[in-house]
């Protein structure tokens, strides 16, 4: 059935979130209605709001939802009403990359996750003045209810702490997946993480599970560097220093790092990450600057077997990977509680401000 919800609508580019009454369409056969319990705030939400990433407006953002299944379409098989679920990105399930287990590289990733509508172009949310773009990452979870794709859902245990686990759906999956699924650093290797916000800290925590003997955190915020140390970084570098790549080479006996994760979205950091690579080293680009951003690289500097790889969502299949992360959290191996600060949904603008000021690593909105 169609149902009413309170959503944080962004009316136009750059405007604040406005709590607004909306109506969600009834679920289609492969869709699920979820009552939100919590939703993490990711920098991508803020980049879209600022117009740096594409989206129609007005729009309901939010893509780290966590909640309880309320209603399922008749073709849904993986969840039933009452199940606790985490929400992640959506994908078509039918293209070559989806079939190969790499849904983050779905041929339809951009339209499905950023297009504001289902694959067939139909909208899912109505406001008082007509259509509101929804279906953001298959969920639009800055709302009391979300109409989701079954493919966005990951079922978790009945006792799962949803207000802690919500960020697994994007930020934590992205950082941890980049290390565990893509780079797979071998024992004794060296790895540097540029930008230790939620994604970068997830990369640090994942690297600390094993493999690298040196994990170097690079950032401009001293408190973040301290937190990175607490979470497993063996060394830290202040990114405001004169030559970050040189500092990393010095830390590694002149060799440079075997692996770099660029999680800041800053082009100077990306240059430094590439420059700091050892021979045969790999740099994973995870941070998303504004669409159209380009970076000049020293081509000859790459000829020593160096690789640069762009990574979306940690190249994870959420339904396989997110439960593994949830298990690590429950065993204390991914101490997410050190990153998360909770805000009531009505205080979404406070959460945004604290995030933009760098006062909080991962804001999680909570619903009654
Ligand atoms: C996004 C970043 C921009 C490109 C698609 C994936 N990651 C999640 O926030
Ligand atoms: Zn995100």
From TrEMBL:
Q: What cofactors are annotated for this protein?
A: Zn(2+)
UniProt cross-references to Pfam families, sorted A to Z: ADH_N, ADH_zinc_N
Q: Where is the Enoyl reductase (ER) domain?
A: 14-365
TM ranges are none
Q: Which UniProt keywords apply?
A: Metal-binding, NAD, Oxidoreductase, Zinc
Q: Which Gene3D superfamilies match?
A: Medium-chain alcohol dehydrogenases, catalytic domain, NAD(P)-binding Rossmann-like Domain
**Family in the record:** Belongs to the zinc-containing alcohol dehydrogenase family.
Q: What is this protein called?
A: Alcohol dehydrogenase
Print the organism lineage.
Bacteria, Bacillati, Actinomycetota, Actinomycetes, Micromonosporales
